[in-house]
Amino acid sequence: MAFKANNKKEDEVKGKTKKPVAKDENSTLADWKRRFKERPFMFVGTLVILLIVIVAFVLVPAIPGVSSAGVELEFGSYNKTPITLVPGNYFTQQVQGYEELYRYYYGDSYDASNIFLTYQIWRSAFEDTVIHMAKLEEMKKAGYVAPADVVNREIAQLPQFQENGRFSSLKYRQMDNMAQRALFRDVQNSLAETRYTNDMVNTLPVSSNEAAFMSQMASPQRSFDMALFSLYDYPETELSAYVSSNSALFRVTHLSQITITSSEREANQVLTTVRDGTATFEDAAKNYSQDSYAETGGDMGIKMAYELMSIIPNEADRETLLGLSKGELSPLIRLSSGWAFFRAEDEPRAPDMGDTTLNARVRLYMMDFERGRIEDWYIDRANELAASIKALGLDEALAAAGLEKTSFGPVPLNYGDVGLFTTLSSLSDAASIAGTVASDQNFWQTAFSTPVATPSQPIVIGSYVAILYPVSETALDSTSIEAVESSYSSYWIGNTMNQALRSYFLASDRLDDRFSDAYSQYFQ
Description:
Blueprint: H1 7-15, H2 25-38, H3 40-54, E1 74-78, E2 81-84, H4 90-106, H5 115-141, H6 148-156, E3 162-163, E4 166-167, H7 169-173, H8 177-201, H9 208-215, E5 221-230, H10 236-245, E6 252-260, H11 264-275, H12 281-288, E7 299-304, H13 315-322, E8 333-335, E9 338-344, H14 356-369, H15 371-392, H16 394-401, E10 406-412, H17 431-437, H18 441-449, E11 459-461, E12 464-474, H19 478-506, E13 511-513, H20 515-523
Antiparallel strand pairs: 1-2, 1-13, 3-4, 5-10, 5-12, 6-7, 6-9, 8-9, 11-12
Helix pairs in contact: 2-3, 3-4, 4-5, 5-8, 5-19, 6-8, 9-19, 14-15, 15-16
């Protein structure tokens, strides 16, 4: 047992414990949210550890289906040590820690039933558990064990044992012996893991010139207004004009298909049974066809001419199909997957741009194969908007164009979304572009070279054409810049080391990763 509940031990612990500074719970939570929003990738590890050390020993892990009486489900193993989900163990604490993290950050919008988010939470918890086990094993091989008095001192500082700013042996004794031993072990492991991390950090030097260069990225900071043209709003009149000029691509046909992959001889036999009426096309498709249309009797649905290119490589064969009359069978056609024959379900026809379904297909085709044409069209519109802004002012020009203004900032020239500074991804109003432009040299060059209160040149950002309008620019004081420089070393080392360790341990042949199978079984 880690602690002996007597006055002497209590006095010893008190003597080594600093009096904690009281903090309002709501303000602390707000601070967590702010820090996570500003630097999510740096902060996530810190907060999860905090939740595990504090929350996990105050709250009983509330993961549905986790029961001490239940069967332990193995998600894998590291060096033959199973990774299981049982109440109170590291994996369980990590799952709950991530859930608390997302719940704090997203607030009322957090959806515990979101299967993609749940998978992300559990997978992150699993990987963190692997890294935790691997670090402890390394420390065990090195012969390091955190001394008992150091562990006791750490436990004495945990919030759940504080009363009037001092350690309370009474609160500690309210835990049963098993819980006390588990707490001692977990804190001891945490100290060993911290020692491992610190030892690794001390082996990685950082250039002072690099730190000085990075600190200069923090200033100046700019705030922006922005107008976005979505490429997906390309006008139907322009779509129709393109179709008129390229009508052969958009001829419409309705076909059914039977594919035989075994041999040309067998394919000819099936075609013969359909031609002579021995079997209907639908029955032959269901009984013999070896493609995704078999269950629907071979029906491929409505196709445009360009969509047949990915199915039928030979242009002459495609023209044969596009010329079939309703009910007519094609000859046998060689495909990459075997042999096939087709039946026309309707007469071929020219595209009707009044058909919204066909209209959407034309739009997708142009986004895939004529994207530059759409971008050029919107760049012309953006240039017209820029001229209007110079003449009328931003708000009036946007109103005349029927566009909304997006505002974001202040943000420094944060190429790469470096967590040392304010990032675009932490600014909700910049969410539509953050993932695309974080490492886009043209975006950052345009954003910080355009004079303040002047519209920028149009730039392409993902599926948008944008006009940036720098509203203001502020310079950081020297103290703030020096603070960034001094913290760069630990930031860079932490990120570099953590990524390297994760890659190393998760690729280790000591890891038996059965997470996906166990996760699927758990949530069935």
